[in-house]
Each structure stands twice: as C-alpha cells, then as structure tokens.
Design brief:
9-stranded antiparallel β-sheet, alpha+beta
Length: 170
C-alpha cells in the first residue's frame, strides 16, 4: 500500500497543469535570436499558443528579430512572471523553450485560423496588422523546455506537446 501524497506536495501532474496555466496567463514572450554575425539579440512579441504547445507570433520585417528568424530558424523564447507579482526575484516563475521556426504562408488555412485566435486575444489591432504586407506569422515549435517555479523547483519538459515532465536535480 502506498502512502498518500501530503497536501503541500505537488505531483508531476500538478506541476504540468500549473505550468500550462502559467503559459496561458502570459500574453508576451521574450525572444532570443541570432543576427547575421551570430550575436544574440533579445526582443519580445505578443503570442498565442496552440493545443500542441507551439507559440505563434505575428511580426514585422522591420523588426530585427523577424529578419533573424527568417534567416536562421533556431530560436529560444521565454515566458516570465511579472516582477511586481514575484516575491523573490532570484527565483522568478518562468518557462523557457528552445526550438525552430516555421513561416505560415498567408494562403494557408492555419494563417486565417491563428489570426482569428490572435484577434480574440488582442483585439482589433490584428485587423490593422494583417493588412500590412511586411508582417509574417511565425510558428515557434519547441523541442524542449524548462519550467522554473522557484528555488530547487525546475522541471524539464519534452516530447510531443511537451507532455513529458521531469524534476531537474543535481
């Protein structure tokens, strides 16, 4: 017979649900891209997420990160809790991914579906932006991720839809 889990102890299933809820609560992500000289540059973009854990951004060619992502399909991105909502800044809740980029063609059904999803989340600005020809819908596809909920509470996420979770220990 197994002993019950103490009420203050979270299971990996609980952690998985928590990180998913955290991702849903965020509206922007921080991007790390490489420029043509292989120097990293940071930026941000509003995003939506699909059922498989892919993140979508709708970005202008005028932004350096868009050029980087069109030229080099490797990317890292992070969702992070607001500083004002964080008790300990050295242990901010965050979700970090490493993956690749796919450009979604304007003619693709997925383009219309994702822009509709963006409009639901961000409002009428999407109508304006989709009329601008220099905007691209980019799909950020995670290969692996890390979720940190505090000191000693880091988790590796992998597999399809990042559905496999493992506590990171030394």
């Amino acid at each position: 017979m197994t002993s019950p889990t103490p009420k203050n102890t979270l299971t990996l299933s609980d952690i998985q649900a928590e990180q998913h809820q955290f991702r849903q609560s965020c509206k922007t992500l921080i991007l790390a891209t490489l420029n043509s000289d292989d120097w990293p540059e940071a930026s941000y973009a509003p995003f939506i997420e699909d059922e498989a854990g892919n993140h979508y951004i709708f970005v202008s060619e005028l932004a350096a990160h868009t050029q980087h992502l069109l030229e080099n399909k490797k990317v890292s991105w992070m969702l992070i809790a607001d500083e004002q909502d964080t008790r300990q800044l050295f242990a901010r809740q965050r979700f970090t991914c490493v993956g690749h980029v796919d450009v979604i063609a304007r003619e693709a059904a997925e383009f219309a579906d994702r822009l509709e999803q963006m409009q639901e989340r961000f409002g009428e600005i999407i109508d304006l932006l989709k009329g601008l020809g220099d905007f691209h819908l980019l799909k950020l596809m995670p290969e692996r991720a890390t979720y940190v909920r505090g000191f000693g509470q880091a988790y590796a996420l992998s597999g399809d839809g990042l559905n496999q979770i493992e506590h990171l220990k030394r």
